[in-house]
Amino acid sequence: MNGYPDAVIFDLDGTLVDSRIDFDRMKLTVIDRFEEVGVPAGMLRRDLTVSENMILARGHLTEMGIGNTLEEVELEIEKELVMIEREALDGLRPVEGAYNALAFMSERNIGIGVLTRGSREYARDALMEASLDVFIGEMVCRDDYPWWEAKPNRISLLRVLSRLEASPERSYLVGDHRMDLECAIESEVPFIAVLSGSSSQDDWSEMGDFPVVDSVEEVPRLIDGSGMI
Predict the structure, then answer these.
(1) Residue 228 in domain
(2) What is the pTM of this model?
C-alpha cells in the first residue's frame, strides 16, 4: 500500500472507548428471552456471542414453524440490550491516546469510521461522552439494518467503506475481538488488533499473522505515509 490508507475503521468498545458494558448480562438476556418462547435450554450458550446465539435461536424457531414470533421477541430483546448499553455510559472514557490517534488521521484526510455491534443510540452517546464524535465520518451500528447484517457480516464493513468512498484493499479495520478479525478477513480488509479490550496477545497469536498493538494510540506509528511498516 503506497501513501496513507483511504480509511481506518474502528470497533468501538474495547478499541476506542472503555465502557464496561455487561456483555454477560446481554447474553443472558438473549438466552432467557428465547428460552421463554421455545428455544430448548442448553442450545444457547454463554460462551457464544450475542450474535451467534441469536442466529441459533432464529434458525430453531423458524425450523419449528414459530418464526412468526421472532420480530416481536427480537424487538423486546433490542430494547433490553440498549438499556444495558446505556447503563455503561456512566463512567465511560476513551481509550488512552484515542483522541490523538484520530486527530492524526483526520489531519491527514484519512477517512475515519466506526463499525460496532452496539446500538446507534449508545454508540452516538458513547462517542460524544468520549469527545471522539468530531472525528467520525461514518458509522454502521447493530440496529441500522437487520441485526443479521451487522458485524461480523462483511456487508456491514463494506457499507462503512462505501460511505467513506474507500477501497477495502486500501483501508484497515482495527478491533479487539475475533469478530472484528472475521469481518476483516471476509471483507478482504487488512486488520490491526489491539490489546485494550477482550483479547490477549496469546489469543491473537492463535488467530493469525497481523499487527498487534497495545491500543489505538499506536496505530499512527504504523502509518508513515507509505502504508504499514
Answers:
(1) no
(2) 0.93
